[in-house]
Design goal:
Radius of gyration: 17 Å
Distance between the termini: 33 Å
Helix content: over 70%
Number of strands: 0
Mean pLDDT: 90
Number of helices: 2
Amino acid sequence: MARAIRETPVLYGKDAERFQKEMKRVENMTAEERQANREKARKAYEKLVTEVQYAKA
């Protein structure tokens, strides 16, 4: 049986300001910048998966 999803926490202070700033930064990105971010995230994921596989061995 699935577990209940917890309520999203409310951000306050500097955390809230940082979140809003990051949201605005992402909204203003060009298609090329978004693609570069996806590629960077994909490469980081692949590196992580490779490292985990070596750790299991």
